[in-house]
Amino acid sequence: MSNALFSLGGKTAIVTGALGLLGREHCRALSEAGARVVACDLDGDSCAKFAGELREELLCEAIGQALDVTSEESIRRARGAVIARFGSIDVLVNNAAINDKFESPAAAADQSRFEVYPLKLWQQSFDVNVTGMFLCCQGFGTVMADQRRGSIINIASTYGIVAPDQSLYRASDGTQKFFKTPSYPATKGAVLAFTRFLAAYWGRVGVRVNALSPGGVENAQDPYFVEQYASRTPLGRMAAPSDYRGAVVYLASDASSYMSGANLIVDGGWTAW
Known about the structure:
41% of the residues lie in helices and 14% in strands. The chain has helices at 21-32, 44-58, 72-86, 108-111, 119-147, 183-202, 223-231, 245-252; strands at 12-16, 36-41, 62-66, 91-94, 150-155, 207-214, 263-266. It has one domain: Rossmann fold, CATH 3.40.50. Helix 2 (44-58) links the parallel strand 2 (36-41) and strand 3 (62-66).
């Protein structure tokens, strides 16, 4: 198989949530495949700095762009800047998302219980994880539809497929440190449903829409959690941030040219049992 299938040379890729742990890896992977990368996040200055690092490290074309995915005006400004600079939008990675965090670790178990979970946090998650994806697809994806080509990658989660295992958040002494809250799995399930909708809607104009469902990424979590997560995973470990690079390039490139409306699960086998 030719490596040209995986080449993104001459294509412009937008990554939302680009300053996050996986967002940075998505940007690097797309840059290494030849794409002109637009790293988007709330902090425009930090995005510009990260894009500069990409240019220096990979000798690629990359720019940073301030973006609030919940704001139609912010998306319009970003779209205009990208078109003015590169002339097209070929790949969109909807990576921006929030995951509930509680200020006090001591109170987290009580505050994260479903019975008392705040409506404000539920709505906040849907605003970013679902409405933000919708608005970015509308704002950036419409350019692809007009071009009659493009690939949209919506980042979902294994928790959009299966329910959280609350025992993972229980320490060895039996103390429940935290409950995985309802908004994250609910929003990621919505991401999958919306991906199927848009794939069917825009398939006729050559825009492919797929989801990528990552498993848990090791990132300085408590040792008890890492051990329990790894033991529940057939490959026996949590993911490294770089484990999703190949999947992103595959979905963005012509290597997946007949793939749309699908959910690519990369989870070390987590959902296999």
